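Dear support,

I submitted the protein below through the web form. The confirmation email said the job was done, but the results page showed an empty box. After a refresh the structure appeared. I'm attaching both so you can tell me whether what I see now is the final result or a partial one.
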Amino acid sequence: MTKILFLCHGNICRSPMAEYVMKNLAQGREDVYIESKAVSAEEIGNPIYPPAAKTLKNHGIPFGNHRARQIKKEDYQSFDYIIVMEEYNLSRLFRIIGEDYDNKIYKLLDFTNTPGDIEDPWYSGDFEKVFEQIILGCKCLLEKI
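What the results page shows now:
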C-alpha cells in the first residue's frame, strides 16, 4: 500500500483539499492510503475553512468531518510520500522531522510540468485557482504511483 500525507500550514485549506481530491480520484483503489496534516499548531481541531469547503462542494468532492491535525516526527516513518504545498511548508516540516533521509518529501506541483508553490488561498482568496493546481498535482501524483 502507498501511503500519502499532504501538508500545508494549518490543515484547513490546501492540504485537506488535496486529501479529499486525491481520495476522490483514487476511489476504488485499495492500494492507496491518504491523510493530511499541518506543519503548524495554529488550527489544530478546526474544520476545513469555509471557502475551501465550498470549493470542494462546488466540484462534488465529499470531505466529511475533517479536523486539523499537526504532523509529528514519527509520521515520517509511516508515509511513503509527504507532499507539501510550498517552500515555506518545507522549512517548517524539517524543524519537526529533521532530515529527509528516504527522499519522501515533495511539493505537490513537482509531479506536474509546472513545478512550484501552491499559494495559500487564506491570503489570496483564490480557492478556485488552488483547486485547479491541486487537482492537476493529484492526477500527476496518482499516475506516478
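Response: this is the final, complete result; the empty box was a page-load delay. The longest helix spans residues 127-144.
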